[in-house]
Design brief:
Strand content: 15-25%
Order of helices and strands: HEEEHEHEHEEH
Distance between the termini: 71 Å
Structural class: alpha/beta
Number of domains: 1
Low-confidence stretches: none
Length: 176
């Protein structure tokens, strides 16, 4: 009898852990970088590789940092939402083209529209690592002083823009 009870107990324990794991929300992965300065980088611009962009270039502005790639299916899903947000001109949108070929990235933006005020390249993924990127897409909201104020993992939805991004952007725009 004991030889049946032990496997049953182990099965029940595993089932409980599985149920707990399924209830987690992977899009709500906390970032240790929240309310800390943006990790430094100097990256070539996608459309002007001889020019570099750094976070210091964006000081004094509220900006979104969207990590994307032409090979990313979820990035394609969020792209129309980013295009709509760009048309509102509520915030500077900086794209980080992650582990992608520049020619593919340029073609993708030419085809689907370009919501980015500027897009930079991270072909080897080092900038993504410094920012704690788990995968693409991810979007960060930066305040005027260069602090990371919010991290969104996964594709941005229209509801996210209305309920999270625009209110936070408006609040950060009014802060000095």
């Amino acid at each position: 009898m004991l030889k049946y009870i032990i496997p049953l107990i182990l099965f029940i324990i595993l089932a409980v852990f599985l149920a707990l794991g399924l209830s987690l929300k992977p899009g709500e992965i906390p970032s240790p970088l929240l309310n800390k300065p943006a990790p430094q980088f100097s990256a070539p611009k996608l459309n002007a590789p001889e020019e570099k962009l750094t976070p210091a270039d964006l000081k004094g502005k509220v900006w979104l940092f969207n990590i994307w790639a032409s090979w990313c299916v979820s990035c394609r899903a969020e792209h129309p939402i980013l295009n709509q947000l760009a048309r509102q001109q509520a915030v500077v949108i900086v794209g980080l083209n992650y582990k992608d070929e520049p020619i593919n990235a340029k073609k993708w933006l030419d085809t689907l529209g370009n919501p980015y005020n500027v897009s930079i390249m991270d072909q080897d993924g080092r900038i993504g690592i410094d920012w704690g990127v788990y995968g693409v897409p991810e979007t960060f909201v930066m305040d005027k002083t260069g602090l990371i104020r919010y991290k969104h993992t996964g594709p941005v939805t229209a509801e996210d823009v209305q309920q999270i991004f625009l209110p936070l952007i408006a609040k950060l725009q009014t802060e000095s």
